[in-house]
Task: inverse folding
């Protein structure tokens, strides 16, 4: 797990949409999708439910998000 993957996760959760998250991170939509896919592959789980309306966290995604968010808040 690297910073790009974590930032992709956090932005996707915050905005609920990969295109918007990518725009806010100044990267392409395929780049954010690839970062999330790499994260899912490394963790061997699905983190988001994807639909035409956007993305929502799965149960595993929620757990990772909580730990990641807590860690970033502690660092700040």
Result:
């Amino acid at each position: 797990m690297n910073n790009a993957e974590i930032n992709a996760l956090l932005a996707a959760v915050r905005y609920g949409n990969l295109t918007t998250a990518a725009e806010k991170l100044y990267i392409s939509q395929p780049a954010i999708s690839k970062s999330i896919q790499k994260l899912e592959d490394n963790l061997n789980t699905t983190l988001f439910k994807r639909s035409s309306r956007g993305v929502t966290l799965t149960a595993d995604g929620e757990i990772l998000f909580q730990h990641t968010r807590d860690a970033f808040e502690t660092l700040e």
In short: DSSP finds four helices and two strands in the chain. The mean pLDDT is 92.
